[in-house]
Write a structure and sequence with these properties.
heterodimer, A: about 240 residues, Cytochrome Bc1 Complex, Chain D, domain 2, B: about 425 residues, alpha/beta, 2 domains, about 30% helix, binds flavin-adenine dinucleotide
Chain lengths: ~240, ~425
């Protein structure tokens, strides 16, 4: 008897959150205006072709960097291989700051800071993704979360001595001299990019299991310490 | 008038002071001796020398002039690497300020705090780090002892043994049989024997497709078992016969002269037999009397032994808790130890211990899998915090990326160890 009640509550909760999340999807008409910022590089709609960036038809549910006939950056290809798919949450994070998901992305766009712009834009793009009935359930219902990293985290100053100690855990895989065969180089990066990338693994926005595990147990100070250490590493 | 001994020492010390002041200073420095220039020892020596910036005198004792990594030695068997790709010299360590002495350590005097060398003489230490890897337990496989290692190689220390096994594999008759006697837990590199089976199968599929592989295993299951079995079914259908504990895989004897293996009473004629016996800490750990049973128990916070606070044991030889015996683990433990030893000798800051491990295995070309975890030091042991493992049924893209990562890791760890 009490078992049934538990099930009942879970189901009710599900309905509730679905209804709530659907409202988060913005206004496609307003989104069309926001899309002007993308137009110089991306086409969308009937007959859209690749330009500077790939066309954005059918982007929902697609694996990142999966158009065979487009030359993606290594970084985005790696993210795709690692399991990054475009859904409302990942697109939202990518729109906000492309480098947080793929540091070496060729998409030079600094990001849409306003959450409202992003949800309107995504509502607009979704109208070019398949028949909505074919869109995976998760896409229309997932809640866009706020991927803003607290500015306090970005402002943290790392202790370089601690960074040096922590870094020894990284150099088993990432070569200290910046070599990048098979595993990307992490030396001499702008600190902010480094911090964003590490938090994206920590928050599981980037998919790679090794790095999710490594970043998962580092706190914000430790990430800051590593960022400052690797940023200044002599060659 | 002849000088007596005391005067002689006094005079020569004074002369040294005049001739070369830095040398006298060097004699006042704290001394660390590291035994074994493998994944654990080389890393510890390099980090202590590098981070103490000359404040600590670091000597590494290692008999071989070239270290052949066990990691990737299976890829050499499979034809993915040349033997020279997995051999590394100690030039980088010497350039980094480590005194490299090519000799065997043959004894430890814990009261005098000295290590005896096979070539004569001894070296004093303030802190001694042992990372001697493994030796085999006598009598572990009936019919096999070290004198049989040419007929039935273990290839569980890389180098000439790996070359021997490869040569035997290449000269197997058409449709012949390759047997492996797998080791009981705990042993070096839990997925190692099964990666080896994969690589042998790959080689045979290319060169001798009707050959068969038998594995006699004393264990009921093994590391990444589901992943390996999936891979063997996909790539090497019908080729690998794994006989686990349930089917008598632990009831094994070998006859190196007759080239037979007897598994649970059944005698099998084999063409190649890779015997991987039960393992224990490298002998020098026993000689230093820091072992309890087969391994040397250590404190998780700094890898110091339970038996002696000035002796540390790293890598395969240690008994530390949850970490598998791997090169990655040994390298990770070495850095924690280096930080602690440096702190103890020079007062530098000691940070909390953090450990991690990832083991990649190659099943077939571009079909790589991995397992890994992070660990922390608790009072009793090194304890697992978090982990992951590749999944069965992963896409070819993911498996290829995983293999490429392992290549990156190999370059990373060998540079991290040896400079
Ligand atoms: C087939 C195979 C595959 C493997 N694959 C992987 C892998 O993919 N990833 C991974 O992380 N690990 C792997 N490993 C495990 C890895 O090789 C070991 O765990 C690692 O080398 C352990 O490091 P260590 O420092 O304890 O010992 P070792 O690296 O073996 O070093 C010990 C050194 O000590 C020296 N020595 C011994 N006794 C003395 C003495 N008395 N005096 C002076 N010197 C002495 C030896 O000459 C040797 O150089 C594999 C092992 C095998 C066998």
């Amino acid at each position: 008897m009490s078992f049934r009640r538990v099930i009942f509550f879970v189901v009710a909760g599900l309905f509730f959150s679905t209804a709530g999340a659907a409202e988060e999807f913005g206004d496609p008409v307003a989104g069309k205006t926001v899309y002007n910022k993308c137009k110089s590089c991306h086409q969308v709609g009937q007959g859209a072709r690749h330009r500077i960036g790939p066309h954005l038809n059918g982007i929902f549910g697609r694996k990142a960097a999966s158009h065979e006939d487009f030359q993606y950056s290594k970084a985005l290809q790696r993210a795709g291989r690692g399991g990054l798919e475009w859904h409302i949450d990942t697109l939202n994070a990518f729109m906000e700051n492309p480098r947080a998901l793929a540091s070496g992305t060729r998409m030079s766009f600094k990001g849409l800071k306003k959450a409202e712009d992003r949800s309107n834009l995504l509502a607009y793009l979704r109208t070019f993704s398949d028949d909505p009935a074919n869109i995976p359930e998760a896409d229309p219902t997932a809640t866009p979360t706020d991927h803003d990293i607290d500015p306090a985290i970005l402002a943290l100053e790392g202790d370089p001595e601690y960074g040096e100690y922590l870094s020894s855990e990284c150099t088993t895989c990432h070569q200290a001299d910046g070599g990048d065969d098979g595993i990307p180089s992490i030396v001499l990066w702008p600190e902010e990019d480094f911090v964003l990338a590490m938090h994206a693994y920590k928050n599981k926005k980037r998919a790679h299991p090794v790095m999710q595990m490594m970043a998962g147990r580092l706190n914000a100070e430790e990430i800051a310490a590593l960022a400052s250490y690797f940023a200044a590493l002599e060659q | 008038m002849t000088l007596n001994r005391r005067q002689f020492i006094g005079t020569s010390a004074a002369m040294a002071a005049v001739l070369s002041a830095p040398m006298v200073k060097a004699q006042g420095k704290p001394r660390v001796v590291v035994v074994g220039g493998g994944a654990g020892g080389a890393t510890a020596a390099r980090y202590i020398a590098k981070d103490s910036k000359g404040a600590i005198d670091v000597t590494l004792i290692e008999p071989t002039r070239k270290y052949y990594t066990c990691f990737f030695s299976n890829l050499y068997l499979g034809g993915f690497k040349e033997i020279e790709d997995i051999g590394h010299t100690y030039g980088g360590l010497a350039a980094g300020g480590v005194n490299v002495v090519h000799d065997w350590a043959v004894g430890v005097d814990r009261d005098a705090k000295t290590v005896a060398l096979a070539g004569g003489g001894s070296l004093p230490y303030d802190k001694l780090i042992l990372s001697p890897g493994i030796d085999f337990v006598d009598g572990a496989v009936e019919g096999w002892d070290l004198s049989a290692q040419n007929a039935m190689p273990h290839a569980y220390k890389a180098g000439s043994q790996s070359e021997l096994l490869k040569a035997q594999l290449m000269s197997m008759p058409e449709g012949g049989t390759f047997a492996m006697v797998a080791p009981p837990n705990p042993y070096r590199c839990p997925p190692g024997p099964y990666e080896r089976i994969s690589m042998v199968a790959h080689f045979l599929k290319q060169n001798n497709p009707t050959a068969k592989i038998i594995v006699a295993d004393p264990k009921p299951k093994f590391s990444k078992m589901a992943l390996f079995q999936e891979g063997w079914a996909n790539h090497y259908e019908g080729m690998v016969d794994w006989i686990g504990e349930e089917f008598g895989g632990g009831n094994v004897s070998v006859d190196p002269n007759a080239m037979t293996v007897t598994i649970d009473g059944e005698v099998v004629n084999v063409d190649v037999c890779n015997v991987i016996p039960a393992m224990k800490a490298g002998r020098i750990a026993d000689m230093a009397a820091v072992t309890d049973g087969n391994w040397a128990p250590v404190n998780a916070a700094d890898m110091s032994t339970k038996a002696d606070a000035d002796i540390y044991v790293l890598g395969d030889a240690s008994s530390q808790g949850d970490m598998p015996k791997s090169g990655f683990s040994a390298n990770s433990q070495a850095k924690v130890c280096a930080n602690a030893v440096r702190g103890a000798l020079t007062g530098s800051k000691v940070f909390p211990a953090k450990f991690s491990n990832t083991c990649w295995s190659l099943i077939a070309p571009n079909d790589g899998v991995k397992v890994g975890a992070t660990y922390e030091a608790t009072l009793e042991k090194i304890a697992k915090v978090d982990g992951f493992i590749s999944k069965t049924g992963e896409s070819a893209d993911v498996r290829k990326a995983t293999y490429e990562e392992s290549e990156g890791w190999y370059t990373g760890i060998t540079t991290d160890m040896l400079g």
